[in-house]
Specification:
- By secondary structure, the protein is of the alpha+beta class.
- Helix content is 26%, strand content 25%.
- The chain has two helices and six strands; from the N terminus they run H-E-E-E-E-E-E-H.
- Strands 1-3-2 form a three-stranded mixed β-sheet, with no helix packed on it. Strands 4-5-6 form a three-stranded antiparallel β-sheet, with helices on one face.
- Strand 4 and strand 5 form a beta hairpin.
């Protein structure tokens, strides 16, 4: 996935919809709510069904703040690419199987 190619199309979509970000589902991640492109896209399908690993997580939006509810813990979702590695490390510590799938 070439982020530079994606950014132009995403920014056009967000401008057309007059919004700051989009939440994408039905394409499973590796077990974590995953922000991309400085939080403008949030990949939200963690694979709840047994077929995809039965991950227990969801996206929580409160007062324009974004969180992952992962294994019962509410974790702030980073809205910058720089914060994503630390966030993913924290999620993997709660559910080590996320790194394996």
């Amino acid at each position: 996935n070439d982020a530079e190619t994606e950014v132009g199309a995403l920014d056009a979509l967000l401008a057309f919809q007059k919004t700051k970000r989009i939440v994408v589902a039905h394409t499973p991640t590796r077990g974590a709510e995953t922000p991309r492109l400085d939080g403008r896209a949030i990949l939200a399908d963690v694979g709840l069904s047994a077929h995809y690993g039965a991950r227990l997580a969801c996206l929580v939006i409160e007062n324009d703040s974004y969180f992952a509810l992962h294994r019962g813990q509410k974790i702030p979702l980073p809205l910058s690419d720089a914060g994503r590695p630390a966030y993913l490390e924290r999620v993997m510590a709660l559910d080590p199987s996320s790194a394996d799938n």
